[in-house]
């Protein structure tokens, strides 16, 4: 089964160029998790200033997508951002996170009891 999550990211504060500084760390994380390196391109696209609030599709399940954005928030605490995800696993496959100072200050979903696999 393949998964996809459409993510909508809004950068509230910080310099998205800081993502370049942790690019190798993210690539290593993707390798450790047996995830495609294409995900790194998707992540960079999501943080591209010209695409703020434009959707980016990640070929990941919701939990892996959330973990990826959590890693970015932890490694670059100067970035404050919101991300909302909509997946393809059913009506409960929606979620949102807001990250400030490297931690999630708001979390909702995914609503596992409403996800159909």
In short:
With about 120 residues, the protein is α+β, with helices and mostly antiparallel strands.
| Strand and helix order | EHHEHEEE
Question: How is the biggest beta sheet arranged?
Answer: 5 strands, antiparallel
- The unreliable regions are none
Instruction: State the total count of DSSP E strands.
Output: 5
Percent helix range: 25-40%
How confident overall, as mean pLDDT? 89
SS element count, helices: 3
Through-space gap between termini: 9 Å
Strand content: 25-35%
Structure description:
With 117 residues, the chain is α+β, with helices and mostly antiparallel strands. The protein has one domain (5-114). Helix content is 29%, strand content 29%. The protein contains 3 helices and 5 strands. It has helices spanning 23-32, 38-47, 62-75, and strands at 5-13, 55-58, 80-87, 94-100, 103-108. A 5-stranded antiparallel beta sheet has the order 2-1-3-4-5. β3 and β4 form a beta hairpin. The chain is globular. The model has no long low-confidence stretch (mean pLDDT 89).
Write the layout of secondary structure elements.
Elements (H helix, E strand, L loop, with lengths): L4 E9 L9 H10 L5 H10 L7 E4 L3 H14 L4 E8 L6 E7 L2 E6 L9
Antiparallel strand pairs: 1-2, 1-3, 3-4, 4-5
Descriptors:
single chain; 117 residues; alpha+beta; five-stranded antiparallel sheet; 3 helices; 5 strands; 29% helix; globular
């Amino acid at each position: 089964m393949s998964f996809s999550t459409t993510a909508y990211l809004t950068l509230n504060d910080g310099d998205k160029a800081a993502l370049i500084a942790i690019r190798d760390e993210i690539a290593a994380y993707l390798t450790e998790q047996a995830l495609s390196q294409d995900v790194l391109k998707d992540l960079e696209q999501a943080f591209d200033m010209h695409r703020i609030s434009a959707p980016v599709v990640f070929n990941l399940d919701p939990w892996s997508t959330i973990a990826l954005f959590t890693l970015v928030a932890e490694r670059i605490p100067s970035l404050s951002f919101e991300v909302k995800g909509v997946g393809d696993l059913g009506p409960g496959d929606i979620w949102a996170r807001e990250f400030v100072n490297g931690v999630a200050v708001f979390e909702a979903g995914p609503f596992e009891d409403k996800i159909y696999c």
